[in-house]
Queue: 2 jobs
Job 1
Amino acid sequence: MTSRRDVTLTYTVLGLFSLIALAPIAGIVFTALQDPDGLAGFGRFDGIHPGNFADAWRDGNFGQYLKSSAIVTVCVVACSVALSVLAGYAFGQMRFRGSQVLFYVLLLGLMIPMEAMIVPLYYDLRDLRLTDTYWALILPQIGTSVAFGTFWMRAFFRSVPRSLVEAARIDGASSWFTLWRVLLPLAMPAVLTMTVLLFMWTWNEFLLALVMVTDEGLRTAPLGLSFFQGRNQTDLTLLAAGAVIVATPVVVLYVFLQRHFIRGMLSGAVKG
Amino acid sequence: MAAVRFTDVDKRYGDVDAVRRLSLEVADGEFMVLVGPSGSGKTTALRMLAGLESISGGEIAIGDRVVNRIAPRERDIAMVFQDYALYPQMTVFDNLAFGLRRRNVPKEDIERRVQTAADLLGLEALLSRKPGQLSGGQAQRVALGRALVREPQVFLMDEPLSNLDAKLRTQTRGEIKRLQHEVRTTTVYVTHDQVEAMTMGDRIAVMNDGLLEQVGTPEDLYERPANRFVAGFIGSPAMSFFDASHVAEDGAARLRGQDVDVRVPDAQRLPGSVTVGVRPEAARLWDAGRNGIVGPVRGTVAYVEALGRETFIGVDAGGSRLAVHQEGRTALQPGDSVEFGFVPDRLRYFAVDSGEALG
């Protein structure tokens, strides 16, 4: 039994940390809503002026940046999720020669940071005449995302009771059908969580975009925000509004998908 | 329906032999139980038959067809798993229909067969539920139903009762036996529980350490165990053993061991020293009536297991612990001295070194 005092203490601690975590976000939002002609100060609340967003959108060319980000992110996430599910299924459920070694090779992609490979990657892509195209942003990020995604989905497929797959095999289902109709419905929480993570990482990727593209029309939102900051050193309100615009899609996706994180789909499948 | 034949089947994992030269025939329509302790290879044998494990050597045939290289879904088998393995996102109906849909059975046929199986197993009210909403016993019946609707050549069951509580297990045991009797489908049933094996199997194959020790009817195994392992594994409480010398004595024989000196009819030619196997019912208290028993043998009561209708008394004598059967109850307590005797023609003899049955 937890006593009333314990509960109070728990909530106090949790509340405090929530406040610490949320304060900067609230600060940015408040700053973005400040009177553009008033005295700018971080986190100061002096009424709601949504016009700042329109100004930032126009001044910062965010329409273009968000479009680029959306193209890159949707391509990367869609391809990575599809490939990760397939690769995770293979590594998690199938036995084949060299699977261990291959899996470790894949993990390298997870362990080597973008900073370490960005220079050779730039030269490679330049040789392929892909710099300054969307491909330069999409292909490398599919590579790194699949490393994580495979790792993530393999863990899920390994946790599925073997007997479930075997039952499907005996019942006459092919590997493909087993994945599609038996396992994937169970994997939805794992797939959606992975989707959110990959979306967030891809959306926020800065270094790759900075190195690979110079064309204004290809710049992604974080890059745009950075250039916008360079031009608006002094206008804190507009900068905050730009930051909020760039962050919103990720937040919206998270809020939308987290409701679908259905847990416990497996409960009752097998005695456990 | 079809017969099943294992011919010299091996299964190796690296250096470990899980199954060694297994040869076993299961007749068409027979209920064969594979029984043995953990690691005896019984589940591996079943999984090889199912096609879930490759076969390292030998040959497995279902009917006239060698299935070594045939995929599980083409073997026309249905399997009931220990953890049921129901598809959690599908209703009971869809679980039952899954295998039929994969085989392109016409829709009306699926309906009919699922209904028939549901009637047979009392699942009508559960058809629209999902596995998460079923009790253990219900999930178990759905798992059986999923095998039943397929109307396969062979049923494979891998310890299907081990997740049920004792009462439900006894009940389901009878139910599976009844179903199998009705549909007459060849069944291979794996269990580590010798009571399940004895009550369900037409014949039983006892496995130990990858080897098939003996195949026979429950009565064969109980009355005529091929070796000490089978003798000790089948029966509850288990057969007890003690070592004795065997000396011929004017038309009969004398068994002499520590604490033991009894005259037995010399029906068999036995070597000088033997291991004597005693079923609990082949040992009776001396006072309870000396008719037909030889003895007495003195010992000390080690434990008393009173089951109500009968009592098993563990007695330390002859250098080992022997179980003695007694109708009804007893006033004996652990530590008491006691005298008992043997039913001479119920004693079994085994070679001291190899453990093989003698006589």
Job 2
Amino acid sequence: MVVILGIFRFIILTIYMNQTINEPIRVAGVFERSCFKPIWFDWNNKRLKISKVTFTTDYKQGLVKHKTYSVIAEDNLYRLHFNLISLDWILKSVWLDG
Amino acid sequence: MKDSKFLLVDINSYFATLAQQENPYLRNKPLVVVKDLGRTCVIAASKEAKKLGIKTGSNLHQAKQLVPNLVVIPAEFEMYLSATKKLKKIFCNISPDVQVYSLDEAFIDLSSCREYLYQDLQQLGQEIQQQIKRELGDWVTANVGIGNNRFLAKMAAEIASKGSVFKIDSDNIDLILATVTFEDVCGVGYRLSKKLSKLGIYHPYQIRFYRVEDLELWFGSFWSRELLKMAYGEEPHHLSLLNDQRFLSQRMRSVSRSITAWQKITDLSEIKRIVLNLSREVIYKARRMNLSGRQVGLYLIGGDNICWGKHLTFKDFINHTKEMVQLFAQWFDHDWRGQFAPIKFVVFLSLLEPNDKHVNSLLPSWQKNESLEAALDAIDDKYGLHTVRSGLMIQSKAVIQPEVTGFLGDQDYQFNYR
């Protein structure tokens, strides 16, 4: 019983989280007032239209600059990761809502 | 009161607010941030969680009992630092004198530009709030405190209602000092506040009625002076240091790194691996800033606050991971001897001086270490810290990566050398 309760509590605590995906994706967007704004991305043979960019995070790993776009597409939150040196786009994670 | 004016901008529930800004599905929900999933200390709580009685520093288990539908998310330090850098840009466009006080707070000193640029500070405060929303998102709110010094600006921000601008001036200062509790007074910690309340002192204004001799007897000469300054709304020592250009222009005096492990570590090799990991980060940061230190220290903390630590001051400067780790290895063999299973590890290098202020050793062994460290730096500079690591760390469960702290003690490194 104690073990079951412990597992149940663990599930409750971790149910809200980003599911790591780490898959290369195709992204299209526009430059607006010197900022890039993603419009859609292709993932799993599906084109997902971005309705809102909720946040951008800039960071460096060594000399390489990275930018993460947190976007809402079809009612899900995705993190699109852009490497400013290699110009690669990666779908970093998708939000799983309990 | 002097004419100089200060603003303190404090982002409301920073970590949690940024999480809610990024993820609209978390808005209006009681939410707490922990360092990592599985950790039990709440490092930030959302406005909604705070309303339900959850404070920063609460135990997660107790918080869950209080609010069963509590959302728990792991911290995203890169996101917080990125947002702080954006905030700093906003503030630096307002005045050349900006001091980032912590990840979510900054003082803007308008002394040198107010007369010409900003007639109405209340309006300026509201404009800053709007700029923050434009830059970080419309969910992000900030308190702006205005005062004739940093102490009053900070107090104004503390007592302002969420997302508002509040000013302390000669009209309301006495009333505020007589009603504010020490919880909202910058510089008064938990213990001092407790001691004051035991004496029936709950508000700074009350201190004015005590004799200096009595205050000195109870709090010592330093704190009696500090408390008296606060009683009259003057800047205490730690905030007035921010005014001192000599202090501001000073480089970092020490670099430290601490980590709390998931559990107590009994295996000596694992303890050594963690210390090696932290040592490399400390040395890397010092070297990025072109600094070397003469004092090296290591502290291990176990359960029930049991602590073991040692530090040594040398004549020569240290800026090689190998030297540092070899020293710690000696301490482990001769002094430590597995006294307890540590859970918290602290490594530091202090008494730092710029590398051009001292002469490097000409000994071949030192030169060899320097070549090795320089090669490591070159790779880590390009690809990120710990890209190349000692073979001793191969068996580590996970490499401990650098992270920022809420109080941003290493802001010189984070803003200028990273």
